[in-house]
From TrEMBL:
GO cellular component terms attached to this protein's record: plasma membrane
Coiled-coil segments on the chain, per record: none
Species classification: Bacteria, Bacillati, Actinomycetota, Actinomycetes, Glycomycetales
Stated name of the protein: Magnesium transporter CorA
InterPro entries on file: CorA_cytoplasmic_dom, CorA_TM1_TM2, MgTranspt_CorA/ZnTranspt_ZntB
Record-linked Pfam families: CorA
Transmembrane is among the record's keywords: yes
Entry GO MF terms: cobalt ion binding; cobalt ion transmembrane transporter activity; magnesium ion binding; magnesium ion transmembrane transporter activity
Signal peptide: none
Statement: the UniProt record of this protein carries the keyword Ubl conjugation: no
Amino acid sequence: MIDYTVVTARGSEERRGSAAELRADAAAEGAFVWVEFGSPDAGPVQEALEALGLDGFGAFPVGAVHHRPKVEAAGGAVLLLVKTVWYIEATRQVETGELTMCSDGRSLVTVRRGVVDPVPQVRERLRDESFRAGGAAAVVHALFDSVVEQYDGAVEDLTDDVSDLERLVFSGQRVDRNQEIYFLIRETLEFQNAVRPLAPFAHSLRQRRAGSDLFSHKGFGDVAGHLIRVDASIETCMSLLTTVLTAHQGQIGTWQNEDTKKISAWAAIAIAPTIIAGIYGMNFDDMPELHWAVGYPLALLLMAVVCLLLHRGFKRNGWLLQIDVLESQLNVERGGSTVRRTGPGALARRIRPSGPACLRRTP
């Protein structure tokens, strides 16, 4: 037995019947049927498709997970598979489900998988007579529109996390964030794979070249524009993450170079007294300084002077200091007015002894 909804101009009615009864109700004048399955594991899915003549796309893969959305047409029927997306902010994870819609304009079969469920809100709209008058095409449009609207919240949360990560990377803290960046890139890519394959279909909808009367509903153009904007937002997140990753790897290379220079400088300072001590520790008889009264303090003084000169030289060359390069665009308030400076000349630098890196802003 199959549960389905019969929609007429007078209203909608829930029914339960065999495949033959479903076929008869779908053939009634001025009515269309909607068969909705809340899981792809439902056994009667293929039976309902065959009863309504919507099995031209092959056997429905029970329990299968589709990784990409798609649009297919066969024998006057259309299969529209869209990915549902929700974002778990606590773990920064993008999760996806799917909604499959098969329709020939007189009947509709929908199969859903995942947390996002646009069906209840569309069922509420069946109470509206003008909505029912649109037939199965209006229901397909409403479901498609509801799924695309769900993308907005996920894109907003993802964008916030990308912006937060960008601020952390450029905060001046010497923390390796490659793993966090790669993780967000992977989640953004999953989101992009759920939306990008529908972009050509969205463009064809806006140009009214979708190839099926089912998509002639006037609202499909707006949904297509919305989908294109979402795709552009995801692409922006991906571009920003790629740029941040490149910049962060450059930061890590700079940190390593700074550490190498500091180690080399301190090693050079340490080796000078070692050489002097090594020479005076040879204990040759023909060394008059060994019996000189001021030889010992003079040797210590020589070591200190050499170390001091080396330290001063390395410090002047920046090998023992850390230079914080602040943002290149600064708002400098002078006399109550704000002056914006850009370019290399506007870089504010402060030299300070080596230590934990932190970003300092010039007031």
